[in-house]
Specification:
Blueprint: E1 7-11, H1 16-27, E2 31-36, H2 39-50, E3 55-60, H3 66-80, E4 85-88, H4 106-134, E5 137-142, H5 155-175, E6 180-187, H6 193-198, H7 201-209, H8 219-230, E7 241-244, H9 255-266
Parallel strand pairs: 1-2, 1-4, 2-3, 4-5, 5-6, 6-7
Helix pairs in contact: 1-8, 3-4, 4-5
GO molecular function: oxidoreductase activity
Protein name: SDR family oxidoreductase
InterPro entries: NAD(P)-bd_dom_sf, Sc_DH/Rdtase_CS, SDR, SDR_fam
């Protein structure tokens, strides 16, 4: 029970990595708030988890409305008196408009970067005074392998996720004396609904050819990294980036070709 009685707030939490994080934190004894725009869906998920003996509640957050980041923080503090852990899980990109440098309009690039960065900046800015007052806290930001490895498309998403890493390190340095820790989890290709429904089988297979562990990650495996950073197990850890990606990007650039050649020789 590494998060026993801690108050945890998770954004974009009704599915995928966010929902897995809610479940993992609740399992560790936390009181978890699901921040979501669709409160009906969030309430349904919360009821299901509460029926399992967990303590899960909901709070409104609309990623397109910056004020709602501030109000969600204030509402949780009003109800619980504190926030021990903030997990900034929100992130978005429109594959139809977020393309490469030649084909992405500035307006679309700026919109992607703005919303993804704001989700971390505004919520962190709002929670830090409360964490200072209570003697500390933990902020865990979800970036992406796309923030570590340049891509041939989704330039807005990649730049925003890279910026989240650097922003997190800045916040970590600026708040360390207040016992506030800030760390980053960078998921690789993860078997969420968003990935399975929006990325072709060909792309998924191509990506896995360059992943030594040879499978997608599971949302609960990303959540496990979040729990570590949120807990006192990471009490001396701040400003760090954990890539949970099955080894993607670690081997030689010709890794996939070498694996194919090795397989051909065996046959």
């Amino acid at each position: 029970m590494r998060l026993q009685d801690k108050v945890v707030l998770v954004t974009a939490s009704t599915r995928g990595i966010g929902l897995a994080t809610v479940q993992a934190c609740a399992k560790e004894g936390a009181i978890v708030y699901m921040a979501a725009r669709n409160l009906e869906r969030a309430s349904q998920r919360a009821e299901e988890l509460n029926a399992m003996g967990y303590r899960v509640r909901t709070v409104y957050n609309d990623a397109t409305d910056l004020e709602s980041y501030r109000t969600m923080i204030e509402e949780v503090v009003k109800l619980e008196g504190r926030i021990d852990v903030l997990v900034n899980n929100f992130g978005t990109s429109d594959p139809k408009t977020d393309l490469d440098i030649e084909h992405t309009r500035w307006e679309d690039f700026q919109a992607t970067v703005d919303i993804n960065l704001a989700s971390v900046f505004v919520s962190s800015q709002a929670v830090i005074p409360h964490m200072k007052k209570q003697g500390g806290g933990s902020i865990v930001n979800i970036s992406s392998i796309g923030g570590l490895t340049p891509d041939i498309a989704r330039i807005g998403y990649a730049v925003s996720k890279d910026a989240i890493i650097y922003l997190s390190k800045n916040i970590a340095v600026q708040t360390a004396r207040s016992n506030i820790r800030v760390n980053v989890v960078c998921p690789g290709q993860t078997a969420t609904d968003a990935v399975m429904n929006n990325m072709s089988k060909e792309f998924q297979d191509f990506f896995l050819r360059h992943t030594p562990i040879q499978r997608m990650g599971k949302p609960e495996e990303i959540a496990a990294a979040v729990v570590y950073f949120a807990s006192d197990d990471a009490a001396y850890t701040t400003g760090q980036v954990m890539a949970v990606h099955g080894g993607f990007g670690l081997p030689t650039p010709v890794y996939a070709d070498m694996i194919d050649l090795s397989a051909d020789r065996k046959h």
